[in-house]
Design goal:
alpha/beta, Rossmann fold, Zinc Finger, Delta Prime, domain 3, 5-stranded parallel beta sheet, 15 helices, 5 strands, DNA replication, DNA_pol_III_delta_C, DNA-directed DNA polymerase, P-loop_NTPase, DNA polymerase III subunit delta'
């Protein structure tokens, strides 16, 4: 994929192309932004642009041998380092250091892409720092992360930060419908639920019977004050040990209360995600304090879900607290 094919990141792509055209290429870049917005794709597009045999306006031609090798993952001068299990280990960085000072095999630049760079161990960070302090010639490091706050200042200070922005829901809708013409009719809603991440949109759409899940959940939320406890608990039983499904449900609940807050404070229908339930949102009698408290509970639930907690029990407790609020 070339720079021109990357949607919704005009500013980031413009900065990268200008650095190439002006021959002011940094020895290390930090690509930051939420997951699923094109950071890794842009890193590979940059690798193509730097090594293209027939570059076009600061980008790769996509047709030369170098571009095709990078696209297929076979270029000897472009290396992607990813977490080995839950972290990037010092052994991976040591192996990199043993090779990085060699001349390029066939390209103009060696390009080292460290995906999920925040998952480096302390030892790996320290080992990488030694390379960044005295970077080898014609070698570009690209650190990719959605959690830059977890990187040491010593690493951050040696990288040029390129910020990638959340994608507009219209772009997500366009990309999803292009990739999957059989996507749901109400894809616009799920595009908004993705909160700017194409990866998140794909995960949401792949989460089983998502439309039925959302319909059942919103029926419960709109009637929760009058609904029986047994009905709520019976429905929650469906999600026994389904951590991924419960995470999606919590995010859907979060969007519902977000919509309630937006409507009650702005009366602006254009900002609503669950616009197909607009009448229910308008009729909801919850006050702002109750909505704020519900959002706090949901935030805590999403955090707790990352620990060793029973997902169905967590959902039980959350819905019962919302009901009794």
């Amino acid at each position: 994929m070339s720079f021109e094919n990357i949607k919704g990141q005009d500013r980031a792509i413009s900065l990268l192309k200008k650095s190439i055209l002006n021959k002011r290429i940094a020895h290390a870049y930090l690509f930051t932004g939420i997951e699923g917005i094109g950071k890794k794709t842009s890193a590979l597009a940059l690798a193509k642009a730097l090594n293209c045999l027939e570059p076009i306006n600061g980008g790769g031609c996509q047709e030369c041998l170098s571009c095709r090798k990078i696209e297929s993952g076979n270029h000897p001068d472009v290396k992607i380092i990813e977490p080995d299990g839950t972290s990037i280990k010092i052994e991976q960085i040591r192996e990199l250091r043993n090779k990085v000072f060699f001349m390029s095999y066939e390209g103009n630049y060696k390009v080292i892409i460290l995906d999920d760079a925040h998952l480096m161990t302390i030892e790996a960070f320290n080992s990488l720092l030694k390379v960044l302090e005295e970077p080898p010639q014609k070698t570009i490091f690209i650190l990719i992360t959605d959690k830059p706050q977890q990187l040491p200042d010593t690493i951050l200070s040696r990288c040029q930060n390129i910020q990638f922005m959340p994608l507009d829901s219209k772009i997500i809708k366009e990309l999803i419908t292009t990739q999957n013409p059989e996507c749901p009719d109400n894809i616009e809603i799920f595009s908004k639920l993705a909160r700017g991440s194409l990866k998140k949109a794909s995960e949401v759409l792949n989460e089983g019977e998502l439309q039925l899940m959302r319909k059942e959940l919103l029926e419960i939320l709109t009637e929760i004050k009058t609904m029986s406890l047994s009905h709520i608990l019976l429905w929650c039983n469906k999600w026994e040990k389904d951590r991924k499904g419960v995470k999606v449900l919590l995010e859907l609940i979060q969007f519902w209360f977000r919509d309630l807050l937006i409507w009650k404070t702005t009366n602006d229908e254009s900002l609503i995600i669950n616009y197909d339930y607009m009448e229910s949102l308008k009729q909801d009698a919850l006050g702002l304090d109750e909505i704020y408290n519900a959002l706090k509970l949901i935030h805590k639930g999403l955090r707790d879900l990352n620990s060793n907690v029973n997902p169905r029990l967590l959902l039980d407790v959350l819905l019962l607290k919302i009901k009794s609020a």
